[in-house]
Amino acid sequence: MVKLVTLTIDGVKVQVPAAATILAAAGKARVPIPHLCYMGGINEVNACKVCVVEIAGRQRLVSACTEKVAEGMEVLVSSPRALAARRTMVQLLLSQHECDCAECSKSGSCQLQKLAADLGIVEIRYRKKIAERPWDPAFPLQRDERKCIKCFRCVNVCAKVQTMKVWQAQKSGALTTVGVADGLDIAQAPCTLCGQCIAQCPAGALSERDDTQKLQAALAADKTVIALAPPAARIVLAESLGLKKEAVTAAHADSALKQTGIAHTDDGSRASALFIKKEAELLFARLQNKKEGAPPLFSSACPVWSRFLRFKYPNFAKELSPNGSPQQIFGESAKKVSAAELKAKEIYTVSFMPCVAKKGEADAALLDANGAKAVDAVLTPGETSRFLQSFDLKAEVLETSPALASSAAGPAALSNSLVVPVLAALYEKITGQKLPAEKLQTFSSAPGRKDYVLELDSRALRACTVVGQKNAVRLLDDIQSGKAKYAYVEVMNCPALCQAAPQN
Ligand code: SF4
Ligand code: SF4
Ligand code: FES
Questions:
Q1: Ligand 2 in contact with 193 (CB < 6 A)?
Q2: Is the Cα dihedral 120, 126, 128, 130 positive or negative?
Q3: What are the φ and ψ backbone dihedral angles of 243, each rounded to 5 degrees?
Q4: Which positions ≥6 away from 456 have C-beta within 8 Å?
Q5: Is 153 exposed, middle or buried (0-12, 13-18, 19+ CB in 10 A)?
Q6: Ligand nearest, relative to CA of residue 186
Q7: Backbone torsions φ then ψ of 315, nearest 5 degrees
Q8: Atom nearest to 192 CA in ligand 2
Q9: Is any ligand 3 atom within 6 A of the Cβ of residue 38?
């Protein structure tokens, strides 16, 4: 039987388990307590002290995220003492933070900025002590030491959620900071570019590399810009234009991007269709030669997953498909085919993608020995939004724009699983017929896993789609132990399906 205690928080009575923290009790009582470093079960390090509250009758103020409740406790979140202490704590954080908000990509969504504004802080009473450290400007993930407030969210989300341990606390006392573990340069570290630490950084110290200036420069230089704008990019367009996301179509994407000077847009369905065909051909070839118990072919469409597999399971890395992803196929085709068709002097390709790892994928894949890239720039949703906001886009014009020939809601939408279309293409290649529904069974053999059994003449071919890194690790363990056997595996690393991580 769980022991319950009753307490009040800013006068609101609440009953919670005796082991609960004041922060958890306040959540139940719906009394907000500002907090920065705390992430339940992930980062409970009592670092920022922003959650400081007063307990009636006690001299010492306490951190609500670590202090346990007690019977009859009277918690004061907004008493003059608690507010003064919270202001002091935020001012101390600001004294070690470079407040260049006008040129910070997190401005407007920065938790530290909001907290300072909510507390009415207009000046910092403490002497600024800003530490600096060089960072590789070419790496897709950027870190600005001058903004780090040492909350350790990045350290623990990377280690405990992503299992990668890229970050580590360094030095001690007043000099404590965060850096890449083992003194490595970030380019040498096992970073999958999942973006979770960027999403969790409350102070703008972590961000994606900004590629908007590169795109602006290409437009200014009159290059013929071709853009990949898959369905996920339409959601960002909707927000930029003040439209409801359900109301935005591929035609909006096409028209909005053309208003910026982009010459052509591509919704990705052709590249996806080509990717599917190449995967089916590869799978067909492997089926001809495959020995009993051989490992599956792993799709390489999710670059976070590809990086994870190379870092953590190098024995499986050779099973990664060499077909890359629809993004890279789009880039190669735009550079080779469209350049000839359009008789363009210089083609510049940009891809609007939901994920920072797509930058890493584009950086790594060279088109030729001269270092030319298939995809010149990749803009994540934050960058897409900033890029679009620099133009005066007209939604009313967009609504009368002609529709694109191929719908963005086509069968090979980039953000969806590609296993079924790959299996359908394989079936057609082998039998010469379209895949009938009864030849493909689907079920789930484990959490986050969707299994497919394709009936092929006398054989059955097993494939699966797995969502989430934890579920993918379970699958790899099952494959290694011989418990699971698949011919084709697709992993989508992020639980939110190629979208930003949920905020804690
Ligand atoms: S980089 Fe960001 S998340 Fe990491 S410790 Fe610094 S402020 Fe916190
Ligand atoms: S992007 Fe992901 S893997 Fe890389 S450091 Fe951040 S949390 Fe870790
Ligand atoms: S949120 Fe409680 S100490 Fe940071």
A1: yes
A2: negative
A3: -95, 160
A4: 427, 430, 431, 439
A5: buried
A6: 2
A7: -65, -20
A8: 3
A9: yes
**Owner of token pair 């102070």:** 203
Q: Which amino acid, one-letter code, is at 441?
A: Q
CA distance linking residue 491 with residue 300, whole number of Å: 8
Per-residue pLDDT at 397: 59
Do the Cβ atoms of 501 and 494 come closer than 8 Å?
yes
**pLDDT score recorded for residue 412:** 34
Q: Ligand 1: distance of its center to the CA of 391 in Å?
A: 32
Ligand 1 center to 143 CA (angstroms):
9
- Give the CATH number of domain 212-271+325-399; options: 3.40.50.1780, 3.30.70.1530, 3.40.50.300, 3.30.420.40: 3.40.50.1780
Tell me the C-alpha distance between 17 and 69, whole Å: 8
Please work out whether the CB of residue 205 comes within 6 Å of at least one atom of ligand 1. Answer: yes
Quickly count: other Cβ atoms within 10 Å of residue 239's Cβ. 16
* Percent of the chain whose predicted confidence (pLDDT) is above 70: 93
With a 6 A CB cut-off, is 164 part of the ligand 2 pocket? yes
Alpha carbon distance 36, 18 (integer Å): 24
pLDDT at 399: 56
Q: How far is the CA of 503 from the centre of ligand 1 (A)?
A: 15
Q: Where are the domains of the chain?
A: 4-93, 125-208, 212-271+325-399
Q: Give the pLDDT score at 469.
A: 87
Q: pTM for the complete prediction?
A: 0.89
H or E segment to which residue 206 belongs: strand 206-208
- Proximal ligand: closest to the CA of 53: 3
Ligand at shortest distance from the CA of 203: 1
* Backbone angles phi and psi of 91, in degrees to 5: -65, -40
The pLDDT of residue 320 is 95
Distance between Cα 502 and ligand 3 center (Å)? 19
Q: Is the CB of 49 under 6 A from ligand 3?
A: yes
| Low-confidence stretches of the chain (pLDDT beneath 70) | 291-292, 395-416, 495-504
- The confidence score (pLDDT) of residue 495 equals 67
Atom of ligand 2 nearest to the CA of 186: 5
CA 52 to ligand 3: nearest atom: 2
> How far is the C-alpha of 94 from the C-alpha of 111, rounded, in Å?
12
How far apart CA 381 and CA 199 sit, in angstroms, is 12
Q: Note the CATH number of domain 4-93.
A: 3.10.20.740
- From atom 7 of ligand 1, which residue's Cα is the shortest distance away? 148
* Nearest by Cα to 389 from 260, 485, 274, 280: 260
311 alpha carbon, closest ligand: 2
DSSP state string for 419-460:
HHHHHHHHHHHHHSSPPPGGGEEEEEEETTEEEEEEEETTEE
Question: In the numeric block, which tokens belong to residue 357?
Answer: 């790892």
Residue recorded with tokens 């919704």: 267
Does domain 125-208 fall into CATH 3.30.70.20?
A: yes
